[in-house]
Amino acid sequence: xxxxFSVFSSCCLLLQAVGVGLFLRGFFPPPIRxxxxxxxxxxxxxxxxxxxxxxxxxxxxxxxxxxxVLVMIDALREDFVFGxxxxxxxxxxxxxxxxxxxxxxxxxxxxxTVTMPRIKALMTGSIPGFVDVILNLNSPALLEDNLLWQxxxxxxxxxxxxxxxxxxxxxxxxxxxxxxxxxxxxxxxxVDNNVTRHLDNVLKRSDWDLLILHYLGxxxxxxxxxxxxxxxxxxxxxxxxxxxxxxxxxxxxxxDYSSPSLLVLCxxxxxxxxxxxxxxxRGELHTPLVFLSSAFGxxxxxxxxxxxxxxxxxxxxxxxxxLPIPRxxxxxxxxxxxxxxxxxEQLHFLHLNGFQLSKLLQENIPTYEKDSGYEQFKMAEKxxxxxxxxxxxxxASEALxxxxxxxxxxxxxxLRALSSSLSKQIAQYDMYSMAAGxxxxxxxxxxxxxxxxxxxxxxxxxxxxxTSPLFSLLFYLVGLILLSFHVIMCTSADSSCYxxxxxxxxxxxxxxxxxxxxxxxxxxxGQRLLRPLAPNKKPSSSNLRGSELDVLLLVGTVGHVxxxxxxxxxxxxxxxxxxxxxxxxxxxxxxICRHYFLIKESDRHLxxxxxxxxxxxxxxxxxxxxxxxxxxxxxxxxxxxSPWAVLVGxxxxxxxxxxxxxxxxxxxxxxxxxxxxxxxxxxxLTALSLAMIFVLVQRRCSLVSKIAMALGLLGVYSYxxxxxxxxFPWQRDSRDISxxxxxxxxxxxxxxxxxxxxxxxxxxxxxxxxxxxxxKHGLWEVYNGLVLLAALLLRPHNLPVLVFCLGIQNxxxxxxxxxxxxxAAQVTIMHYWFGQAFFYFQGNxxxxxxxxxxxxxxxxxxxxxIPAVFLTGLSTYAGPLLWAMHLLCYLNSETHRSSTAVAHGxxxxxxxxxxxxxxxxxxxxxxxxxxxxxxxxxxxxLYEGIQAFITAAICIFFTAMDKDKSRSTQE
Length: 971
Hints:
There is one protein chain. The chain has 971 residues and is mostly helical. The protein has an eight-stranded mixed β-sheet with strand order 5-4-6-2-7-8-3-9, with helices on both faces. A two-stranded antiparallel sheet has the order 1-10. Strand 4, helix 9 and strand 5 form a beta-alpha-beta unit. Helix 22 runs antiparallel to helix 24. Mean pLDDT is 83; it is low at 38-42, 533-546, 605-626 and 964-971.
């Protein structure tokens, strides 16, 4: 069976996507849960006693605090409380911290720093799996043992107001609640007012034991305009007033209760310098943690505030509320919170914590008895028993006090060691699923590599040996072996894996798929060894003058792949792509110079003179921008200057957005533009950018589409003016900011209209096969619709990126690719390189915190999952998508190219994406215990996985267009 290479490439990428999904599911397994939470209270220990000693203490002591209020301020960075902003905008909390009447810490979270995993960490004390980044958009109910479940089981009444993620995680746990949508980031006022409006009523009442408030406004401000926004200060002052109200109310009512109350201020995560979160920068990981209660004695203020793991909040709150510590907890009780209690109580609390950690260690590590933390805990427990014996005997000497201090230190050392051991072992990889996914990815990669000679042939088709007897024999034999291995693995493994838990039809299908791919590879190798390249399969003609360029493209692709083995190169991957496209511009300049100065006039084989391509849509821009005949008279100068113009444009874009890790904190042009003092400059730049976008794309539009594009771009500016990013000349800065829903939907209407026009032309080309221009025009219409959508989703300061993208594409088409007549493979790789560079020009990085989730809610008045995910993905990958779409449009519009150009482009695009993906998956597997696996390598793996699915979708679209063109050509 013969397949065109566009169809073959699409099938390979779809199979590769299956392998990537299986690998990701194995690499990011759900967090391991401890044993059933119902049995915890029965296993809580009493005091450790020596032989012959009895104690009258119950297993769980009475609560230290009668009532507790947990105030979580989303994206609250530690410097917002303990830094200059705290002194200026949170005076009440700052005063309490400096007086020493609080217990203050810096809580350090673990990546990923997004809301749902952090709530899990605070309530369970465990380290959530990295896959919770994805689940964060649709939080399932939390089934692990947690503080709220323990509180509810103990009969405590819990009230909650704020982020509705809590309601999804803890259904039926609250006696009263009011949730607010956490993902609608355009709103930073109503989400907080909806919480605060309940305070006066609930603080007057005494029918609750735990009050949880989750404020979202600060996080939304960060997403919209960053941590230096002028909106941050008033929001912090608002939060300080809320905390003051709660604290003073709790103090005024403490006479009504036998025990004092507790107020806890914390953040779920911090905020990066760009206002986002999800990564591992200091601003994202460090949050303030402040305990306020009259039970705390006054201490001397310490400027150096201790940094503690965020998971330490869980056991501290558990003992403070008189609850069992959740079984999956990895944290340690914070000693400063309980140090005001008697030595006997402090030791008992630490013993409870150590007992819970040792039980969790036993459940997860078979050789737990040899663990140093377990040995230290047993020694501390023995010393604790001796102390209890002396205490019950009435010994009040200094020796008892010294022994108590010794036991205290032993417990603290043991707790730290136990937590460290569990942190390394608690997350286990699903190696079987990872191996199955890796095998599929490797097979697809080898199949693509073996197909390179066939892909470059004039027919651009691939023979799939589905009818070969050898193929059938291998298929059944390998399939039987793999199925037998699968049965053995799934029946003998101690712990189940995802691959064994899926329906047997799917698992059998995957095994047969692996067998089929292996047989195709072996058959292909056998055929190549037995026969040389057929005479009719001559490689497609390639420009010999591009041989040096071929070396650059090959070395650059391989060099980028090699760089993925270094964590520093992954963090600063944008530097690699910037270097590659700069080098590419120099190579193109050399080729153009050779073309004009080193090749004889009679030997020049120009595909088209500039005056001969005047009818092409890409050259109409030159006629519109320059006087008649200007391009013809100055073609040499313009061609020689074009690579340098691209080089200058790329250098300017590098100054727009600082990205990566090492230099992300440095000021850039986008920070200057987005500050409130320069709103007029940003408005002018936005207007000019939108005007340039119209000039660059309108030449390919029909009259109706031109009108739609103009109105759509005007709507884009109106939307940004409505949200307060830019202003009209007649608009006052004091105008109330809205969500811009009407304006954004106004733009969506024109986007859909342009896309509909393009789709209609593409469908028409399938009916009228002899119409050559219709598919070309239809593709450009679809491309222009995507440009308008990108203009709406990108932030105003990033619109110049879109302008330069369109401008560079036009320069390359008009003055480089048509002049030097590069083949489809070379043009494809250049498109891919520019697409990757523009991904970073947008301000993206391999840090999840740079994803602009606000783009997912443009034009929406609430959270709708599918549109939000689609819009966020399109905004993030706007650069690669537009360059891939331009590649398809360009290859289809080049009438001098053969009908296999799109097939060659599709195959080449699939290959250049498969190489780094395959190598990186092997690297991540080998480096899975690396120190930076969760902070550096795992986020990059998520980006690669998502781009694998996007690449498959792109190649499917290539295939559809290739089919249309080939048919029309044949007829």
